Amino acid sequence: MSANNISKVKITLEDQVHTIEVPFNGSSITQVAEDNGIDAPYSCQGGVCRTCRALVTEGKVEMDENYALTDEEVEQGYVLTCQSHPRTENVSIDFDDQ
Ligand code: FES
Known about the structure:
Layout (H helix, E strand, L loop, with lengths): L5 E8 L2 E8 L5 H7 L17 E6 L2 E3 L7 H6 L1 E3 L3 E3 L3 E5 L4
Parallel strand pairs: 1-7
Antiparallel strand pairs: 1-2, 3-5, 3-7, 4-6
């Protein structure tokens, strides 16, 4: 873990790569992306609608709630970013790989 429990999260969205700093505990990746002006998709922010689904390609994240993804999707590395918090110093998330 990094000293401040902050992760560098690389977000691939519509062929552009953005890097944001997301706390291990606190705002979700979706919230921090929005705070940084990144137009990542979301709707319910409650873990239900799966609009915010993306693929984790590096590192680990943990979801608070997951009412939308199947076990198989989770095994493949998909997450609901509105519920996701980083658990490693570096995380990469791909919204384009759907
Ligand atoms: S925004 Fe609905 S599940 Fe994340």
